[in-house]
Amino acid sequence: MQTELDTLSEVARVPGESTDRRSPIQPPRSTPPIHLSQAAIRTSAPSITNLMRMALENPGIVSLAAGFVDQQSLPLEVASRAVGTLMADPVEGRRALQYGTTIGHPGLRTRLIERLERAEGVSAGSYREAIERTVVTTGSAQLIYLVCEALLDPGDIVLVESPTYFVFLGPVETRGGRAVRVPIDEGGLRIDALDQAFAKLQAEGQLDRVKFVYTIPEHANPTGISLATDRRKPLVELVRRWSGVAGRRIFLLEDAAYQGLSYGRREPGSLWALDPEGETVILARTFSKTLSPGVKIGYGILPKGLLEPILRLKGNHDFGSANFNQQLLEHALASGDYDRHVEHLRDLYGRKRDLFLEALGEALSGYGDRVRWTRPRGGLFVWMTLPEGVDSGFEGAFFANCLKHGVLYVPGEYAFAPEPGPVPRNHLRLTFGVPSEAELVEGTRRLAAALESSLSP
Ligand SMILES: Cc1ncc(COP(=O)(O)O)c(C=O)c1O
User: Residue ranges of the Aminotransferase class I/classII large domain (predicted)?
Assistant: First the structure.
């Protein structure tokens, strides 16, 4: 059998030379080492790999950790109707099965902007110009990655909420960027603290390294907290003001992954709508939580100067997200099925949220202020704070107790950017999205039992 090495030897043979001379290229004695890129070397394994392994190894465990969506809620009928309509028309069906464009399907992008106009309560056509700045991506994760790729060189700075979405810290690390924490409170990102963070970096001569601020204004992952309405405009204005001081653009990346999943009150408008010049806010949205992560379609609306660089980078990634999935989504939006499904999800998750908060209240009220947790108005997460000194990390006694009692959570330490100073270790991220109602109750009981073994009320 001809091997790759045989082929190499043949290539190395000088034409006309006798074949009995040894080729200058010899098979290596041992397998040579791989020389990875600096980006690959910088990139650590995702923190949750460990959790997934533990969940698989312990089948009886209740996972209050996984950031997936409710399995039973996944919209089989909506998807099959959308695929059926798409395939019923041979021209359209074949178009969907063909490559699309890097920026994404025009019909979908138009529809996304029209929906945004309705959600923001502005007249039809107000945002028409933004259609050409709307890029469809493979989930919002890709948009977020592309923003990091387009903006961050080693040593560049991103200001992030403390705590933040831990997956976001991955691309920052890959790019060699520095994620710097800014405190939040029950109203979300603290505008005064952000101002101070900018001022401190200016005093340190680092302001020109700040590329963007990353925020999750709706029902944040991991806290469930939303940005207070009266902080929204000041936030956009503050970023714009510091951009002026720096003399170079500082962006505000608005990750609206949980927009639409509000249980009760109406959501305030997006930060993007508060930036009419379209120069500061990058809006990242996704249909993973409100339709299906398996479809994995998100989108971004980009400031003008960022559009072309990001399209060039995306061209290198994939020259366009799955065309079929984009058209499936467009059909689900057009038929009204998507909106009906989101209504259903709000009911379902709202009920689970209520049940979970009630169970936590019953099981943990004995600890008074020593154990606290957020009461989210939407999204999928509750953030719990244990007394200082309790280490919620994988190596700590509390995590071991939870494993013993058969319950999993995400250790809060992963959600803190490394700077400044030591990372708090007494928090947990809990989700009510994936577990069934019975599992939520049982998981809470187990969590309380583990706490009891670690603390006394
Ligand atoms: C805050 C936040 N942003 C972005 C994402 C990425 O989601 P996707 O890439 O599926 O759109 C997630 C997923 O959990 C998330 O929680």
Answer: 64-439
